[in-house]
Specification:
- 44% of the residues lie in helices and 8% in strands.
- By secondary structure, it is mainly alpha-helical.
- Strand 7 and strand 8 form a beta hairpin.
């Protein structure tokens, strides 16, 4: 399977490389077990339909991952046919499509028995030998495409980091560019222009049914590719219209719902959730806090490099002060253990680890919410302790909402929306709330005025003003009085237009 992904020039993480191969093997085993024959697309739909009714049920995101793997698998094979093994059972056989300019290898003609790797250790060794580590730690296939393909990736990483884009923006833009290239048959991006960009965006909306924000995100990635990386004139892309993002009201919890939600969360995850609601921070802003950012004496928390690479300060809730102190005492024990085992220091922004090599090992730079396990730095390539992963908090908040029987779509950002709305209901002015939330424009903050408990200036519904619409019940008439029939007018002959007298011509 590794040779298949290498031939298709699909840069996958190690986890995806493993699971995509597992999905394809299970698909081929499904064909063999049910003795199915037919086009690969039809068989893939049958396999997905079987996954949808299995017990225990397969999650939607897992079926999407299977669909992606089988889609790439279908594009990467040719000569799809069926053979009989010595026992007379049907098995799928095919040939791998080599990339342009590479001759087909003798072992590319594959017939897969169930549960075995089609290519084996030789292909795995070839795939590993033909890869290199990209700047973000992902494996990029070499020698399997145009020379410009490798150059755009190198220039892309340089352009992103020259402009100090975050690692998440870099990963997101890279994924969209790779999807765009794969959609056009792994063509050289330099040979594609505005018509191909428009076709890809229309495919996202029509076939994939993505939202307006997702479409705009894909367009931003492609504009960056052609404007900053390939340095091609952007005039051809100016006609591509950005989708208009509809105005949506945020989901807000009542004070009672917030109390029920937080009551179901304990430990470090509960502390993070309370901090998000008590300060209005975004999830990643809370997880990226350092020890030096918490000022107990002044009762302030400094948020560094928030959205838009801006700093701001928020209040430190007095209720959380003793819990944070106790939590940091436990974190210090973990920090001392890391120093005793000579682990590398935490990640430092803006190359401070080169200017101050020992700063990453200082207590002041330690994460307030460190991860339990070590993780690999995607840029430096070393194992170090990073902050806690956001998925753990997201799952805990969602589970707490279900346990509290709150029938609303709840996420970590819901706590931020609730923070802003509750402050407005207490009389906080918009300008102060804008500073606390870190919004660039007050218009963004004004959306919370539409979800307050009493919108407008104390406007009451007419049903709540004490007016009685009906004093007495209207009796129901079982036998309504008969109405006097209307006289029927005398029928007049109907004159067709063709029979009418023609008008005189003057």
């Amino acid at each position: 399977m590794r040779r298949l992904w290498a031939y298709q020039r699909v840069p996958l993480s190690h986890d995806k490389l493993h699971w995509w191969s597992v999905h394809v093997q299970r698909f081929l085993s499904f064909i063999r077990a049910n003795q199915l024959e037919g086009p690969i697309g039809v068989l893939a739909e049958q396999f997905l339909a079987d996954l949808a009714v299995r017990q225990p049920p397969v999650a939607e995101w897992q079926r999407d991952q299977v669909r992606q793997a089988l889609d790439v698998f279908g594009r990467g094979v040719t000569n799809w046919h069926f053979e009989r093994d010595p026992q007379g059972r049907v098995r799928a056989a095919f040939r791998l499509k080599p990339p342009a300019g590479v001759a087909s290898a003798p072992d590319d003609d594959v017939g897969l028995p169930a549960g075995t790797d089609s290519v084996g250790e030789t292909a795995e060794a070839n795939a590993v030998q033909g890869t290199e580590e990209g700047g973000d730690g992902r494996a990029l296939v070499k020698g399997t495409g145009h020379g410009a393909s490798d150059s755009w990736q190198t220039r892309f990483v340089a352009s992103m980091r020259l402009r100090h884009y975050s690692i998440r923006t870099e990963q997101t833009y890279r994924e969209w560019i790779e999807r765009f290239i794969r959609y056009h048959g792994d063509a050289n991006p330099g040979s594609l222009a505005e018509p191909e960009v428009r076709e890809f965006l229309e495919y996202l909306v029509v076939a994939r049914n993505v939202s307006a924000s997702t479409q705009n995100q894909a367009l931003s990635a492609l504009l960056f590719l052609y404007g900053r990386v390939l340095e091609q004139p952007q005039g051809d892309l100016q006609d591509v219209v950005r989708a208009r993002r509809p105005a949506r009201l945020p989901v807000v919890l009542s004070r009672d719902e917030v109390q029920r939600l937080l009551s179901g969360m304990e430990g470090t995850l509960g502390l993070i959730a309370r901090l998000l609601y008590g300060t209005g921070m975004r999830l990643m802003e809370g997880l990226r806090l350092r020890v030096k950012d918490v000022d107990f004496d002044r009762g302030l928390i400094t948020i560094r490099e928030g959205k838009g690479d801006k700093d701001r300060t928020v209040m430190l809730p007095g209720v959380l002060r003793p819990f944070l102190i106790t939590h940091l005492d436990r974190v210090r024990i973990l920090w001392e253990s890391d120093r005793a085992t000579a682990l590398p220091g935490v990640w430092m922004p803006d190359a401070l680890d080169r200017k101050y090599p020992a700063a990453g090992k200082e207590w002041a730079w330690m994460w307030v919410f460190p991860g339990k396990r070590l993780s690999r730095d995607p840029r430096a390539g070393m194992e170090r302790r990073h902050h806690a992963h956001e998925t753990a908090v997201q799952r805990a908040v969602k589970l707490a909402g279900q346990m509290a029987q709150i029938h609303k779509p709840i996420g970590c950002h819901t706590l931020r929306h609730s923070f802003a709305t509750h402050l407005l209901e207490r009389g906080t002015d918009l300008r102060t709330l804008q500073e606390l939330l870190g919004h660039s424009s007050v218009e963004t903050t004004q959306i919370y005025t539409h979800v307050m408990t009493r919108p407008g200036i104390g406007v009451l519904s007419p049903l709540d003003d004490g007016t009685t619409l009906h004093e007495d019940a209207v009796p129901y008439r079982a036998n309504p009085p008969q109405l006097r029939p209307r006289p029927v007018p005398e029928e007049l002959p109907y004159v067709l237009l063709a029979d009418a007298e023609p008008e005189p011509v003057l």
